[in-house]
Please model this.
Amino acid sequence: MSTDRRKFLKHLGTSVLLTSASLTSLAAKEENEVRILRDQKRVSPNDKIRIATIGMGIMGFNDTNAALSVPGVEMVAACDLYKGRLERAKEVYGKDLFTTMDHRAILERKDIDAVIVATSDNWHSQISIDAMRKGKAVYSEKPMVHKISQGLEEIRVQKETKAVFQVGSQRVSSIAYRKAKEMYESGVIGKINSIEASFNRQSALGAWQYTIPTDGDIQNVDWARYQANADVKHDFDPNRFFRWRNYREYGTGVAGDLFVHLLSGIHFITGSKGPKSIYSIGDLDYWKDGRNVPDVMSAVIHYGETKEHPAFQVTLRVNFISGEGDHGTTRIVGSEGVIDLGGEGEAFTIHQNKMPQAPGIGGWDSLFTYTESEQKKLMDDYNKRWTKAQQETPQFAPITYRAPDGYNASKDHFANFMDAIRTGKPVVEDAVFGFRAAAPALACNDSYFQNKVINWDAENMKIIG
Model:
């Protein structure tokens, strides 16, 4: 076993579960390994945290359930602009649950320690700011802002109030991403030069054509409050309320909803503060249901050299009508290997590839175009200069790191949030980190709709020019 291989296997925090698995590469000489990452076990706390959720849609219910999986957390109130979801909240969390259609009634309650903001994107920033000023800890769904112009003000309020504030891109709390960061920093893939990340989907639900209730009408929806902060007001439309992700007025499209997840993970692993330039293209290819955002979108993003990392480029892609089916990946490519992350933070695989010391001769080369005598002269000289070992390409088996069965990164993300409330320790994804991921994602929308390159000052978090 090579010295480099031994160094690689010395990293702690995992246990080897499977060996001798067959390899896809016929050239590989070493056994493949799958390692199960160790899940952190937390001690049950004595002090109780009382929470309320504002926005009881898909993420509202899922976030609430993840929060309640943390010991010592109690759900006491819920807010939504559709009456049916408030009734459902009582069915799930108890008939004594306080419910309201006005988020301000939640914030006035003295018995609430923290709020989950899981509304449509257009309300994330304002409700979070209101909550922090009322002394509440805030868990804000991503993206933390609907517009780039909102970011610095939200950061300012967080610093001013010193409120605990965490953004909900759960993969940054994943044990798989933490291990991937460790391995990246160890230099196992050499010098980073590019990243490819994508989400593919192939279903109506995956493309945000969510089920609309039969009573989802103007009598049961507070439509005026929903679009109170919109620049352009529309007549009531159940699609715009229950499928808000499809509309720029309330959502942020595939860039704000999904690119931001990819960028959060990339920034966490590489330690980056953000890119220098962003350019995106897209189309409304298939889901022509009234939405005004693309269903296929690609972006090319350039990260300049900084003290945190060398220069590298990122390509992002979302395809809502992909023949590949539902699939997502992030591939961090270095000069000597690739970290391949799949799913939502449950696993990753390291593939190492190194060039031989010798530059190579023959094969797809100009050698055969020379005379036989010249070929012999060149080959003799090459073999004198380079030993057989130096001419061979090093072989490495892939190693997969996987979270244990049943692991859920969202639960760890909420556990980190609750720990910050109880102990005062820093959150995993604060307002600055959250905005540095959200802004380049939203800049992809600006680039698409304005058809231009967006230049970004990552240090000062502002658009240049």
